[in-house]
Amino acid sequence: MTTTFATKTYKNFINNEWIDASSDKTITSISPADREPVGYVQSSTEDDLNKAVEAAHNVKKEWRRLGQSARGQILFKAANILEENLNEIAETMTREMGKTLPEAKGETARGIAILRYYAGEGMRKEGDVIPSSDKDALMLTKRTPLGVVGVITPWNFPVAIPIWKMAPALVYGNTIVWKPATEGAVTAAKVMECLAKAGFPAGVVNFITGSGSVIGQGLIDHPLLNAITFTGSENVGQGVAKSASARGIKYQLEMGGKNPVIVTKDANIDQAVEAVISGGFRSSGQKCTASSRVVVESAVYEEFKQKLVEEAGKITVGNGLEEGIWMGPCASESQFNTVTEYIEKGKQEGAKLAHGGEVLTGGVYDKGFFVTPAIFEDVTADMAIAQEEIFGPVIALIKAADLEEAIDVANNTKYGLSASIFTSNINSILEFIDEIEVGLVRINAESAGVELQAPFGGMKASSSGSREQGEAAKEFFTAIKTVFIKGS
Ligand code: NDP
Asked: Which residues line ligand 1 (CB under 6 A)?
């Protein structure tokens, strides 16, 4: 299938103008399916960054004073414009980061739904009335924006993640400087093109591309920045936390996961297999909530494994633009290298490939970064493939004697984002809810796929603790003023 849009150069969007970076340099974004260019984005400098942050700073009072309801109306408009451009955005995403077209369309639709959810927030409450011990007084809380928020986003959900950060930030009255991942920057620019038409006052939403170490770090360190929200690797996230806390600004981090799925002896095995295939291999396993460890009770281990391998064998791998393709390539050469290195490491550690893990070559595969979905068996909880986030289509099968051991294995990583259990036993469900150390607890459901109106986030090294999405996002993007009013 050929794409319906042109390969072009995208500019930064600062103070409601599309402008070139002062470096006069661009970065080429290539498709992981065929290494052809998808587009070009600006290689920005600190000067460009200063302009973006200053623009956001200068308009913050005007944006706050506009009021929540009017801000929500602009988000409604942005949602409609995004909807008109859904197909083009989805195609760009598939070209740029490899996920299949239906997945890319689903993600774009999710972005639109998030915009509408937060547009609706424009009409909801900004605080609470609290009874005062003084009968002549009125005591209340009022939410107030933080100011300029830096938004640093990854490439794996280049539409949904930026929108689930920017939509609440904006409706609660903050202005924004958005630095997308370089590998997803063309898709991000397409989203920005839609936001640019929605009617935000100049400076409210600014978009700047460039390297993480220059523009990302420069953004966090900028003296006019009031808060930072970040999704990406644990390593960079820890640096964000250090820089932000040294400056005393609020930060929000969503980082990795090594999400376990427990399959008990009384599980519906077919249901568990379907969820593990989807949770482990959709988006080529490049989700922070991907199911990367499956801990199976010994009594059903063989049956589960055989069915899982059989289903994995049906997965078609190829260019996500083609019909009938279930799984696309790894998103980039560096992701491909990471995945293939972990597959080798798994073998060296003594795990056995029960399925896949081969690099696809020949014909259309030669130009892209294609690996077949890998299922390792004989994995022990201490192996690197059971401990470290691979961010690729690799599942580690681990055997456990009973539920208690399975939960111990599931908790035995530094991460704590999402976890599933498949069981028909209510006692096992209750034990799992209490004992599992994650932010997203899923019962008879895959580890990925949390709904947008519910809080999203993790425990331990997965997250800084604050929650994104739903009403919970308000906690990060606002401060509370406690107001005490007495007549005179
Ligand atoms: P990074 O953490 O490097 O990138 C995430 C974002 O941070 C990008 O916008 C990046 O910009 C930016 N960035 C990079 N360095 C800095 C810095 N020093 N200061 C501020 N911002 C910076 O993740 P990668 O894209 O390299 O992916 C590596 C691994 O991270 C994956 O394999 C996966 O394990 C994990 N990851 C987890 C995600 C999640 O959803 N939790 C999402 C993506 C990755 P630029 O792109 O220009 O480098």
From this structure: 152-156, 179-183, 211-213, 216-217, 220, 231-233, 236, 239, 254-256, 288, 338, 389, 391
